[in-house]
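Researcher: Let's walk through a ligand-bound prediction step by step. First, I give you the protein sequence. Second, the SMILES string for zinc ion. Third, you return the three-dimensional complex as structure tokens. Ready?
Model: Ready.
Researcher: Here are steps one and two:
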Amino acid sequence: MRFEELDAEKARRLGSEENWLAAQDLVTNNQVHFRYRTPDRLEAAVQDNDNWYPAIVAIEDGVLKSSCSCPQQGEGWCACSLAVLAAWLEEPESFLDRSSLKDQLKQYSKADLIKIILEMADKVFETRELLKEESPDLDTLLESVDHIIAEAGAMSAGETAELEQKLRLAQEKADRLAQMGRLSEARATYFYLLDNVYGLEEDLGKPGLFSEDLKHELFEEYCQLIHEDRNLDRTLVQQEIEQLESRPAFVAGQLNFSDLKKNFLDEVA
Ligand SMILES: [Zn+2]
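Model: Step three, the predicted complex:
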């Protein structure tokens, strides 16, 4: 079956009469949010007072299946899952079809996309928040690193996997700065990450607190950013390198700046 073939009669038989009525109310009161669809799946977040329940209706082997995290138990489908269907029956176009949206957006020129995004920023507050996140400022970024490092201080080696994920998010933001041409800010972030990671291991006397993978990656990217930056503040970078080289944990990690220095000094000369 396809969702396009679904009718109200079929939908209402999936749960109790009471739940079907509750589902209608949820739709009427605009409590079915973030509607989203694929060919064999409908999703929405259903709001019940202060609680939001992600509800999914899927077609599996030609049969309708529901899944929802609400506490409602008993015979048949819960009101939230039925509300997803009721919303679909009432207004199928309100379900975002991501793949067709993507296809549509691909056809626009960059200027068109800029116009659309600006219009969204005018009208939809969340767009502004999203755009701000996409364009991180250095202070906020470094502050977030401080928080992660403070958390890591209480852990032992092997427990830091989750924190490394967070550090990688900071790293992604630094990469975004680099993509925007803000190379010195990206480099400053990488330096800060390296200095803090090694600094913490040194302070705590726990050399393996963070993974070698992470440290190598940070180091490589840091060097890369130095290479790429045509407006490099050499004095500052010199200081950064000295600072890192003064850390025994860094030196013990077999990372070294000899290649970089060679190029770096060549360029100076
Ligand atoms: Zn539910």
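Researcher: And what stands out?
Model: The radius of gyration is 26 Å. Residues 100-132 form one domain.
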